[in-house]
Amino acid sequence: MGNQPDEKFTWVIKNFSSLQSKRIYSDIFVVGSCRWRLVAYPKGNDMANHISLFLAVSNSEILPVGWRIHAKYSFTIVNQLSDKLSRHEESQQKWYDQNALAWGYRNIITLTKLNDKEGFLVNGKLIVAVKVEVLEVVGKFEESSPVMETIDGFQVLPSQTNREIFLGGFAKN
């Protein structure tokens, strides 16, 4: 996992100033065989007058028991007038698991600075970029769900069944 190149995802949030939702989600993207999404709080998450931004595991409910992801990420709030003025936030390496599904910043940028005419918000559009490097994955991650069999009206895994065929009075497995 450590030899994979960093991956970048860009999220364009339209009509940011008029959003009424407490929390908004990006589309799901895949880096290092892991499914991610960005979560933003346009009015802050327990931090008034700030935008909050987090990188979250998107499919935690279907991951195997004991899964863990070791990842490093960085956020950029893109200044659309001058890249030099973009706001970069580097992270430390973080472990994601059942108890820590998301990491990020409660106060990545103030709403005052965001709404100023400095170039972060242009024509109602906010651009957020994240760069993710998956360092290690613990647990087997499969995109597809297991095939189920129906036995007497119950859904079971094939490994939970034993099929016997009777030929001429002899049982054959």
Name of the CATH first level? Mainly Beta
**And the CATH topology?**
Apoptosis, Tumor Necrosis Factor Receptor Associated Protein 2, Chain A
Runs in which pLDDT lies below 50 for 5 or more consecutive residues are: 143-147
Number of strands: 15
Summed up, the helix count is 1
Number of domains: 1
Query: What is the succession of H and E elements?
Result: EEEEEEEEEHEEEEEE
Proportion of beta-strand residues: over 45%
Distance from N terminus to C terminus (CA atoms, Å) equals 41 Å
| Average pLDDT number | 82
CATH superfamily: Apoptosis, Tumor Necrosis Factor Receptor Associated Protein 2, Chain A
Proportion of residues in helical segments? under 10%
Gross morphology is: elongated
Derived structural class? mainly beta
What would you report as the Rg, rounded to the nearest angstrom? 23 Å
Task: Report on the biggest sheet.
Answer: 6 strands, antiparallel
CATH architecture grouping: Sandwich
Domain MATH: 6-132
Keywords: Coiled coil
InterPro entries: MATH/TRAF_dom, MCC, TRAF-like
Pfam families: MATH_2
What report would you give on this structure?
This is MATH domain-containing protein. InterPro entries: MATH/TRAF_dom, MCC, TRAF-like. The strands form 4 sheets. Strands 1, 6, 7, 8, 10 and 11 form a 6-stranded antiparallel beta sheet that branches. Strands 2, 3, 4, 5 and 9 form a 5-stranded antiparallel beta sheet that branches. A two-stranded antiparallel ribbon has the order 12-13. It is elongated and about 65 Å long. The protein has 1 helix and 15 strands. A hairpin with a 2-residue loop joins strand 12 (149-151) and strand 13 (154-156). It has 173 residues and is an all-beta fold. The relative contact order is 0.23. It has a single domain, classed as Apoptosis, Tumor Necrosis Factor Receptor Associated Protein 2, Chain A.
